[in-house]
């Protein structure tokens, strides 16, 4: 399986400009014939949370139409990062997953809100699971701060997820946490990690890039620099079963103790 991560500099608070930019980047990315494309967190608005009244996507309708058309046009599965989705006056940070016919197959709203970037003041947390099947592989998709909660990721690995996708806007000052947390999640869950961060900056933060693909042994398969880039990697999903049978950590858990 081939995956491409679209690490780009999100235009602050401007969904129209971000749609234009993402259309160009997706057109570029499909040249390397990936099975799955992934975008960063809150890619239509960035962290312009004070203006969500104006710029959140009502019921995600604009984004669903936009990404669904691109997925169908290029026959590619798209994990459309996350967007600010308004429903009934409340806004979630929601990941949207489309298959290669353009069908929306899964939605997940960020379960852990990140107070340091004021998410708790503007957004509501999600309550649903992150598991989905795409391109024939059982996977799970999380959003940024979620990766600091190993129990949440483990729950999905135990239920069979072989690839953990992550969309993020992770700031540069903690980019070492980003890398080490993701390597730890790959090793402890014996799965692939495909994690797409943004690059560039907004009025409050500089973001760290370094989108990354990690294999089930914890080895880095591909890693971006800090700059805008599209990074493609090949995943050998059989490796997940191989590692899980060699060191059967899921079976060896002491669920009677913890
Ligand atoms: N957008 C986020 O959730 C950022 C999380 C983060 O920076 C962290 O250190 O955790």
UniProtKB/TrEMBL annotation:
> Which GO molecular function terms does the record list?
hydrolase activity
Q: In what residue span(s) does the CN hydrolase domain sit?
A: 1-237
Source organism's superkingdom?
Bacteria
Any keyword Metal-binding? Answer: no
Keywords of this entry:
Hydrolase
Protein family membership? Belongs to the carbon-nitrogen hydrolase superfamily. NIT1/NIT2 family.
- Protein name as it appears in the record: Carbon-nitrogen family hydrolase
Look up and give the organism this protein is from: Aquibacillus koreensis
